[in-house]
Amino acid sequence: MPVTKLKETTALIYADNAATTKISEEALNTYIKISKEEFGNPSSLYTVGQTAKEVLEQAREDVAEIINAEPREIIFTSGGSEADNQAIISAAKIGEKNGKKHIVSTAFEHHAVLHTLKKLESEGFEVTLLDVHENGIVSPEEVEKAIGNNTCLVTIMFANNEIGTIQPIKQIGAICREHNVLFHTDAVQAIGHLPIDVKEYNIDMMSASGHKFHGPKGTGFLYVKKGIKIANLIEGGAQEKGKRAGTENVPGIAAMAVALKAANGGIKEHTDSLKAKRDRLIEGLYEIPHSILNGDAERRLPGNVNFCFEGIEGESLLLLLDDKGVAASSGSACTSGSLDPSHVLLAIGRVHDVAHGSLRLSIEDDITDEDVEYIIRSVKEVVEYLRGFSPVWRDLASGKKQFIL
Known about the structure:
Blueprint: E1 13-14, H1 25-37, H2 47-67, E2 74-77, H3 80-97, E3 102-106, H4 111-122, E4 126-130, H5 140-146, E5 151-155, H6 169-178, E6 182-186, E7 205-209, E8 220-224, H7 250-265, H8 267-285, E9 291-293, E10 304-309, H9 314-323, E11 326-327, H10 343-347, H11 352-355, E12 358-362, H12 369-388, H13 391-398
Parallel strand pairs: 1-11, 3-4, 3-5, 5-6, 6-7
Antiparallel strand pairs: 2-8, 7-8, 9-10, 10-12
Helix pairs in contact: 1-7, 2-7, 3-4, 8-12, 9-12
């Protein structure tokens, strides 16, 4: 059955907010205003520099307050990947100094974490990657079991960037505190969408990125609990208390703080609205035969939907959806150029043939109920069209091969 005419709507339906969000008007206006009016170098002693420093420190206070931290515990970075690297390398150096070279993580972390761990393995560290099971959630009991006398760090993401599953961070933090092991969480997908209290959750280090909650790209921060000696990734200056050299991006940082305050202030309303639309998407896509939701249906980010459809390729699905005005993803944006199936989907037990036919929809408040119905209709139509000329689907439908889903 051919796909009906493309571009049924001239308006873009953007459903890839896990890759990046559109900068908010308030954040953009802040960025422009600070760029024009507070352009000084915050390390300079004269008035123009010191007024820029005041803006920088106000943003630090605002970010700290939102996560229940102290301003001095916030280091501004270029984003989540830099923050992940700095946190993990710092913990590894602390551990090595104390004769501990074992790190516990999971098999479906972001590549900023996994690649850093791989590098540390080449330097003699032992890394344990825990199973996350089919529901995409790591077991706190398995975390505790993996911790040994040689463990220096547990690093587990707050919410997965592909399948959106929310991890039991509070329980894991308590376990790490009991065993006197540093705990880092990549909260890039969670912050601004879920309430986070670093003290309540016993988090020692936490990474965040501004462009995931309607702030500007190239901004982020690392929370580091006071008393932890952080290692420098970038040398060259005394900025960020000597822990991150380079003139601070004051307009971007101020805009990020504004965006985070706005996101955090409306979390409950945001969550309730998005969950209803998310659940309608899940319900509608389940009407497609031989499809499956990836990750737990309830313990997931309010705007995340991730499905696999047997008998198709995700790349073709994305291109045809784009032709119909729907922007979506088949996985992490950082690996979207790869033809390999998602490591996240493989980690939860999806076989290669199924993992190739994946679709990630990550929606925000600007998605209407009509948009949701259009997405469901479009995905159904495109999946049917692709299966119509797929030799794999032909073998499945004829009984030559067995269905997996």
